[in-house]
Every structure is written in structure tokens, then in C-alpha cells.
Design goal:
The structure is a homodimer. Chain A is α/β, with parallel strands linked by helices. Helices cover 43% and strands 16% of the residues of chain A. The first copy, chain A, has 14 helices and 15 strands. Chains A, B: InterPro entries: Aminotrans_V_dom, PyrdxlP-dep_Trfase, PyrdxlP-dep_Trfase_major, PyrdxlP-dep_Trfase_small, SP_NH2Trfase/AEP_transaminase.
């Protein structure tokens, strides 16, 4: 018998059985009324999730496609834009901007740290012509939550500067009220807190952003947001949508609405607190002092290579989580608790981590981490 | 009890139950060895399907994303390219080219007709600097198969002109041997003959095309084929792939390989011949004299509005097929038999069409069409 499989990565995340089976139903044709009716409901529910009055557009792509669109639909060739780069996804903003002839003003942030709003304020002073600030709400490579609300406050009164927020692994995990905070572009994806397979990307834009879009001159076709907005207003898409994923999304959104946003965020917070309590009790240190509720990043004990730890967890215990990338390679591991998790999933993950660390010769008192997690869950129940 | 549902559209096409259930399995992480192993096999099997030695790249997008990439990865701003425009998808090539500052030389072809190779030859003479010929193997809006082999013969010896073939609704339905015919770029998608939900696009390029890619200067990021080629050579993708669809694709390809290409093409041909026999027996005319094996396009009897026919078929009989677009709107209907169909599916569709036409007051001898289809199937068995 093969190992039972446990997935705790920051995307894709586990798909609930009932959602997986909903998507296995006979396929709908995207030009038929049954699809249009479903899509109309999905569009309404996405506004609820994004906490916005704006249309939320649905794309068939990974989140990176939405990141690209958040550049090409708003900027002009030769523009400048500020990029918060404190990890792999922050770095990606710079690469996309360069690919389209936009000059990135990179705010290098130490991995594991959140950007200081003052850093952004200073960059905006030095570059008053910067057309946008690009930032991650949750930087998956480091587990950091950046101060989105504070950054929005800096650009809110600037008519020609947008705040663009990649919430691909954040939306649905913690509170990101688009309109209330004044975000100009907010992005997300299906394979994170929305508990679906990869395949859908989401994007909403403010009035200010749509106004800037009118003068944008960067080339785009598949990710032409203006044309998609016009078409999706008719509950249709310009190009064949991922109908099966949209069927799953309709189910997921119905489910999340039953719980409500507050309960959903609280669920993620409880996972996060328990994971932190567990690894701390095991004597390990957190990688960041600004943790995202989507995942917990942990510095491994001295002498433990996390690439090897990940391998032991996977091959010996069936638990898939990820280690560190680039400068954090071998040094950290990341426990994602994004989407369809309950307290027993977290306890299982901690149990497996304790076992694997002990196998690798680390000093571990078996049960100490899981006990701390359980106490945390009891306290926050 | 709701109507049973029958889907006969040129994409999405029905997903076989066993494939739908394979995709409902617990989700894989795309950076884990289990995915890499699966993807390595998929990449091999796609070469077999494309009949090429080249790498077949897998993208998370609809087919249009691959069409865009087939422009942005090979051309330069200000280039000229010949476009065969005899339908909605041919028209799309021109729109993509313009969006990226490439000048389309449009060969307007009457809807329902295939382009004459002589037309392409003449355009190549008049525009020897044209960098590519863009064409559909099967133009879904008209049901026309264009002469891909003959067009390839025209560009084969021109070192600076590519033939780019959109086989999104053709690959797997009829023979399109990429290397043998000398195609430079060949595209396909998941939701057609590959019997999967929408979400995957495929693309392969010849040595000549990859060489031209070196001097291309159009901007691209998500659809950067060169970077994808490098990454996919390691059985990985740059951005999160549609893991669940790739699991389904692995199953589909295994299945198709069991049958072999010849049998698969023959299966589509039999559906096509039977559908044509049926509608002809009912006194209707085919819309094209160069029919694609992917779908049969039919001119409705005098006085029958096909938009209404489609509605009657759907609402009264549970059969979803599509009518005509633009200039063919109301005039034609399209019976797709692409992917997971057997002879009884075709007979059901014909039966429903007979019933719906009779309901609408057309002169129909019930059973005449389905009898002709059955005879055709018996003859080609």
C-alpha cells in the first residue's frame, strides 16, 4: 500500500472531495445559458470575496498571467514603477516590467522581513513619476505579509500612482478589503485559499486604474483586461474559459459564503498560530516577524538541511511541504495551511516533522510540538 | 428529472468518465518527483501525437494563449506575416499580429472554402519578406480543413518564412505529421480531440522557428517559449501548471497510444462520413467542400433559423451544438464529432436534429437521416 498523501504546500493546496467531484460532472459548453447563469453568480461572489464593487475578472492562466496583465494593461513603455522585492515573487514583478520596457525601481527587502512603509514613501518621494507600486500581500517564498494597507495609504491620493497587490496566496486567508483600503489592482488565483486545482487567475481594478488603462500602450492580447471586462459583463469570456474549474469555483464560493469571511480568516489564523506554537516549542525559530496567515516559515535546527528534510517527509511519511529557495535553500522549510485544513491536518504535519527531524538526528522531544499545537487550538477554539 | 445532456460542440468536448475521475484524485505538487515523472511521460507522448522530434511545450491557457505565443516568440515589430482568414479563428491571427505591431497580409477566403495553395504562393511572391504564414488546420467557425501540407511545401525552402498551424481543434482528429510536412509551429489545446476540460495549450516549433526566435524582439513573459522550453526539458514548468489536467492528459495519451494514431483518425473520419451522409439524406447541403474531420457544418433548410434550431435542440432535447457566427449566423449549424464519440452519439444527434427540424415545420422524413448514418457506419466498419 502506498503512503497516504498529505499536501501542505503554498499552492496547489488540497481540493476538497466534494469540489473535486463537482468538477468531474459532465462538461458544460461555455456559450450555453447554463454556463452564463453559473458565471453570473461566480462574478457576484468574487466581488464579495474581493470586498469590492468592481468587476472581478476571471482568466484561464496561472497567477503569473494575472501579474503580467497587471503590468501590460496599465503602464506605458518607458514608465517607472516601484517594486517591493523581498522574495521570489517580488523579484518576478521586476522581470515582468523589464520584459515590457518598464523601468523597475526595486526596493530590496531582506528575505524574511516585511517592507517598511517608510521605504515605499521615500521611493515615492524620489520617484514622483512612478506609475505604480507592485507588492505581494503574502510573499510565498519567505512567508512574509507585507503592509498592504499602509502602502495603499501612500498612493491613495496620488492620481497617477497605483498600488498593485498580488494576493495570489493571500486572498481568502486574511483580510484584504480592496475598496476599503484603496487597492488599485488586486490579483488572486484558484489553487490557494480557494482550494481548487491551478488554472484560474482573478483580477480586479479600481476606477483610478481603469482610467490609467486608457492611456496604456503596452501590447497585450490574451490578457487584454478591457476586452475581458466588456465580455465578462455579459457573463461570457473572450476565449474558452476553464469551465470545469469555474464549476468548482461556484461550489467553493457558495461554501465560503456560508462560513463568511471573518470565520474563514479566523480559521487560517488558528492554523497559523498553532503551527508557530509547535515549531517554537520544538526550539526552532520563525523565519519572519511579519508572518502571513497563509504559511509558516521555519528556520531548521542547526545541522539540518531542509532539502533533505523535505525529502524524508515526502518519501518516508507521505507529507509534501516545501523547503527554501535561492538564499534560503536548505535553511528553511515552509508549512502551508492555506485552504482546506483543519487542526488535525496541522497536528499530522507537526507529527511528521518531529519524526523526520528525529530520524535525521536532530534533538527532538517527540510530541512536544504537537502538544503545543493542540494547546494553541484549544485556546483559540 | 432534468434532460440528459449531449454535448456536440467543437470544444469543449465530452470528458470520458474515467478521465474525469482520474482528475478528481488528490492533487499533486508540481515540484515533487511524482509530477516530474508523470510530466516526463506526457512530454514523450505529446511528441508521438505531434509526430515530431521537437519538444512539445505545455501551457496553462486556452488555445488563444498559444496563438499569441506563436506570434510573440518568433516575429519582430514591423514584420509582415501572411494570414489565412476564412473564419473567426483566421481573423484572430490578424488581431493578434496587429496588437503586437506586426503587419498582417490577409488572404480573405470565402467562408466555407479552403484557401487555394496558389493564393498563398502568390502572396509569398508579392511579399517575399513575409516572416510567416498563419493558418488553421481546421477552422471551427466554418468546418473547413485548409491545405496545410501544400502550404508547408511553399515555405519549406524559405529560410526566413515559417508556416504556423493552429491545430487546436484538429490535432488528434486527422493526420497532421509535423516533421514530415515541415510545419514550423504546431499548436493544439486540451478541450478538443484530447477529451479534457479547457486549460492546456500545446506548442511545438521546428529548428527553423527556434532559430528565428533568437532574433525576435516582441515582448512576452508568461508565454516565453524559450524559457519554457529550457524549464520543461527538466520536466518542470516556470509557473504553476494545471496539474489536475496534466494528470488527465497522461491518461488520455496512454489511451490514444493504445489505439494508435491511424485508428484514432479513422474513428473521426467515420463520424464525419456518417454525419455528412445523414444531413445529405435529409436534403440539406454541406457548408464546405473541404470538410474537416472534426466537425460537420450544415446549411439549414430554407426557412429554418439555426439559432432557433440550436435552442430547440438544447431546451427540448438536451443536445448542445452550435449554430453559425457572423455572416453564417442563423444559416448554418455545426455538428462536432471531435474526441470521445461513438456511432450511437452521432445517431442520437441526428435523431434529435430530425425531431427538432420537424418541430420547427421543416419537411423531414423521420429516420431518413439516422438510417443513412447507420448505413455509413456499417459500410465503414
Amino acid at each position: 500500500m502506498a503512503l497516504k498523501s498529505y499536501l501542505l504546500t503554498p499552492g496547489p493546496t488540497p481540493v476538497p472531495e466534494r469540489i473535486a467531484l463537482a468538477m468531474a460532472q459532465p462538461i458544460l459548453h461555455h456559450r450555453a445559458p447554463a454556463f452564463e447563469k453559473l458565471f453570473a453568480q461566480v462574478r457576484e461572489d468574487l466581488k464579495w470575496l474581493f470586498q469590492t464593487k468592481q468587476d472581478v475578472l476571471v482568466f484561464l492562466s496561472s497567477g503569473t498571467g494575472a501579474m503580467e496583465g497587471a503590468v501590460t494593461n496599465f503602464l506605458r513603455r518607458g514608465d517607472k514603477a516601484i517594486v517591493v522585492n523581498g522574495g521570489k515573487f517580488g523579484e518576478r514583478w521586476g522581470k515582468i516590467l523589464k520584459a515590457y520596457g518598464v523601468e523597475p525601481i526595486e526596493l530590496k527587502v531582506e528575505w524574511g522581513r516585511a517592507v517598511e512603509p517608510a521605504q515605499v514613501a521615500k521611493a515615492l518621494e524620489q520617484h514622483p513619476d512612478a506609475k505604480a507600486v507592485y507588492v505581494q500581500a503574502s510573499e510565498s517564498s519567505t512567508g512574509v505579509a507585507h503592509p498592504v494597507k499602509e502602502i495603499c495609504a501612500l498612493t491613495r491620493d496620488r492620481p497617477n500612482t497605483l498600488t498593485v497587490v498580488d494576493a495570489i496566496s493571500a486572498l481568502g486567508a486574511f483580510d484584504l478589503p480592496m475598496d476599503a483600503w484603496g487597492m488599485d489592482v488586486l490579483l488572486s488565483g484558484s489553487q490557494k485559499a480557494l482550494m481548487l486545482p491551478p488554472g484560474l487567475a482573478f483580477a480586479a481594478a479600481s476606477e483610478k486604474a481603469w482610467k490609467m488603462a486608457e492611456t496604456s500602450d503596452l501590447p497585450r492580447f490574451y490578457f487584454n483586461w478591457k476586452k475581458e471586462r466588456e465580455m465578462q459583463a455579459k457573463n461570457q469570456t473572450n476565449y474558452t474559459p476553464a469551465v470545469s474549474l469555474i464549476v468548482g469555483l461556484a461550489e467553493v464560493l457558495r461554501w465560503l459564503k456560508e462560513d463568511g469571511l471573518e470565520k474563514t480568516f479566523r480559521r487560517h489564523e488558528r492554523m497559523s498560530l498553532a503551527a508557530r506554537a509547535a515549531v517554537t516549542a520544538l526550539g526552532m525559530k520563525l523565519y519572519t516577524d511579519s508572518p502571513s496567515m497563509a504559511l509558516t516559515t521555519v528556520i531548521a535546527p542547526e545541522g539540518i538541511d531542509t532539502d533533505k528534510l523535505v525529502k524524508v517527509l515526502r518519501d518516508r511519511y507521505g507529507v509534501t511541504l516545501v523547503g527554501g529557495q535561492d538564499q534560503a535553500k536548505g535553511k528553511i522549510f515552509r508549512i502551508a495551511h492555506l485552504g482546506y485544513f483543519d487542526e488535525f491536518d496541522i497536528c499530522t504535519a507537526i507529527t511528521a516533522i518531529e519524526r523526520a527531524l528525529a530520524d535525521m538526528g536532530a534533538k527532538v522531544e517527540l510530541g512536544k510540538g504537537v502538544g503545543a499545537a493542540m494547546r494553541s487550538f484549544a485556546e483559540t477554539a
